[in-house]
């Protein structure tokens, strides 16, 4: 991730604008961590400043608010370095990577799929597309299909976005989001194929796998009749786990293949074939049309809070409900009336990481597009109860 090390930073007078970046405020925690809110071309992100044991400062993008396109973060860090007159000790920021900083038309935020995505034809989805070989091949071969690629590895996303532009591939949309949550934003019966090729097997932590009973149920809902959910893996344990999950369905059309040849292979599959590892395919075909559903809306606060009371009583705290949790991790103070709370919440096996921003009594999520899935809504209710318990 882009970052630089420095001995000192000149204090800024907030808000301030330098070149293309506006720096709105600085927040600090009792642990000695600092955050700086920055924005450029509509992208809002936090810069994290961490003091190392040798006394030097590490400056980088905060993971929670880090933009998918690294060029934005690199440019913001360069502007922050220059306006704060930092003397770099080390940097991995490469100016050549952001000579032209612009939003890719192929990259979409989750809010787009929740509120603006217009389904005009058949959709195919690839979850965890990695290098993008298979996704790009399928999109070029099937120009009439709308492809959605889900990936959380940002260098892989950058690579596919670049190839879409270089090869003029216009039927791919890329989203940086948890696939298990993403499925809830698609209408029923609109997807023809869902590819999950070589996911992380998580053999020691099976609860972190993409496949689960809930994921399969949601996949069957979005698939049209005769649509398929397709796993390809080199892990015998993942293959057995997925097959067992599908066999728990009351009705299932499942096909299994071993060492089947595809038109295109990933670099990982090429490596494993050289090692003579077996490759397993499990293909589930949907047989039933599903009822339409309403899309989840976004979560909002309709309350005022006293930041001073929250600051004075705040502690690292984990709260649990039935199938969900809320973890209040760290509080950052901007001024007497404003601050940020870093937290994670949601389902036990998949969760959101974000901040709660408190500005003169007003409360909001940061990033603000926290969607009202079942587990998120339950956690949101618990968060509001936590605020009431402190402020009432």
Task: Explain how this protein is built.
- By secondary structure, the protein is α+β, with helices and mostly antiparallel strands.
- Helices cover 26% and strands 32% of the residues.
- A hairpin with a 2-residue loop joins strand 16 and strand 17.
- The chain starts with a strand and ends with a helix.
Which keywords apply here?
392 residues; alpha+beta; Rossmann fold; 3 domains; eight-stranded mixed beta sheet; seven-stranded antiparallel beta sheet; 20 strands; 26% helix
How many structural units, i.e. domains?
A: 3
Shape: globular
CATH topology (level 3) name of the largest domain: Rossmann fold
Q: Name the CATH homologous superfamily of the largest domain.
A: Vaccinia Virus protein VP39
Q: Which structural class matches the secondary elements?
A: alpha+beta
How would a crystallographer describe the biggest sheet?
A: 8 strands, mixed
Unreliable segments of 5+ consecutive residues: none
Secondary structure: helix percent: 25-40%
Mean pLDDT: 90
Family: Belongs to the class I-like SAM-binding methyltransferase superfamily. TrmB family.
Function: Catalyzes the formation of N(7)-methylguanine at position 46 (m7G46) in tRNA.
InterPro entries: SAM-dependent_MTases_sf, tRNA_(Gua-N-7)_MeTrfase_Trmb, tRNA_methyltr_TrmB_bact
Catalytic activity: guanosine(46) in tRNA + S-adenosyl-L-methionine = N(7)-methylguanosine(46) in tRNA + S-adenosyl-L-homocysteine
């Amino acid at each position: 991730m882009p970052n630089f090390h420095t001995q000192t930073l000149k204090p800024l007078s907030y808000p301030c604008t330098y070149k293309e970046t506006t720096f709105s405020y600085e927040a600090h925690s009792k642990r000695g961590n600092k955050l700086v809110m920055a924005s450029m071309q509509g992208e809002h992100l936090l810069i994290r400043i961490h003091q190392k044991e040798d006394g030097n400062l590490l400056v980088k993008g905060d993971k929670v608010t880090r933009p998918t396109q690294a060029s934005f973060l690199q440019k913001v860090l360069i502007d922050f370095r220059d306006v704060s007159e930092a003397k770099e000790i080390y940097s991995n920021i490469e100016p050549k990577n952001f000579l032209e900083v612009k939003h890719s038309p192929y990259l979409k935020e989750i809010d787009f799929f929740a509120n603006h995505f217009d389904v005009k034809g058949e959709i195919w989805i690839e979850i965890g597309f990695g290098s993008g070989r298979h996704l790009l091949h399928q999109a070029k071969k099937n120009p009439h299909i709308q492809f959605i690629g889900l990936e959380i590895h940002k260098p892989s996303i950058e690579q596919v976005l670049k190839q879409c532009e270089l090869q003029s591939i216009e039927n791919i949309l890329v989203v940086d989001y948890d696939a298990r949550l993403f499925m809830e934003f698609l209408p029923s019966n609109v997807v023809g194929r869902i590819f999950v090729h070589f996911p992380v097997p998580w053999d020691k932590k099976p609860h972190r796998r993409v496949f689960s009973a809930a994921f399969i149920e949601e996949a069957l809902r979005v698939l049209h009749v005769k649509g398929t959910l397709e796993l390809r893996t080199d892990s015998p344990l993942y293959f057995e786990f997925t097959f067992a999950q599908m066999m728990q369905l009351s009705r299932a059309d499942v096909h299994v293949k071993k060492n089947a040849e595809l038109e295109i292979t990933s670099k990982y599959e090429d490596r494993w074939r050289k090692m003579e590892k077996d490759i397993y395919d499990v293909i589930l075909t949907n047989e039933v049309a599903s009822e339409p559903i309403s899309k989840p809306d976004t979560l909002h606060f309709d309350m005022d809070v006293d930041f001073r009371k929250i600051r004075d009583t705040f502690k690292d705290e984990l709260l649990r409900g039935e199938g969900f949790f809320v973890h209040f991790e760290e509080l950052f103070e901007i001024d007497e009336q404003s601050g940020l709370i870093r937290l994670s919440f949601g389902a036990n096996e998949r969760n959101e990481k974000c901040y709660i921003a408190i500005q003169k009594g007003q409360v909001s999520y940061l990033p603000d597009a926290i969607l009202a899935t079942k587990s998120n809504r339950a956690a949101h209710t618990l968060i509001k109860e936590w605020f009431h318990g402190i402020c009432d």
